[in-house]
Enamine deaminase RidA (YjgF/YER057c/UK114 family) (Paraburkholderia caledonica), 157 residues
Amino acid sequence: MTIAISARVAELGLTLESAAAPAANYVSFVQDGKLVHISGQISRKGGQPAYLGRLGDNLTEEEGIEAARLSALGILSQIAAATGDRRDRVARVLRLGVFVASTPDFNRQSAVADGASDLMVQVFGDAGRHARSAVGVASLPSGAAVEVEAVISLTQA
């Protein structure tokens, strides 16, 4: 029997919150065949935006890493919603796009993005290893420090 996504997250000492509803005119994820494209997820705690601001300004690199991990938890919530919380349905995390609100002189976006990447590997093992972009941006929705989007490959149902 395969462990549920939420159960694996709990084993890591984390909590998988309910999948966030879209904040505007889009959907949280789109499945096309075996691919699931997940819309950007910002860092949240208790359903509220967390880690607001910019890296290199009012947030440290360590806070950015935690913000990326919380954003990745949002990705995992969307994967759980798309798969009925079945970890065995995830063939591979194909790609993460990580956006980091940061000052022009902050250049550690890749280190911040590791907060999301590391969680994918902790939850899915080798199937969690993925291609990735880590990009610095001027601002993100709700003033969030980090936003993560994903493309996931599923197994047959």
Summary: The mean pLDDT is 96. The chain is about 30% helix and 30% strand.
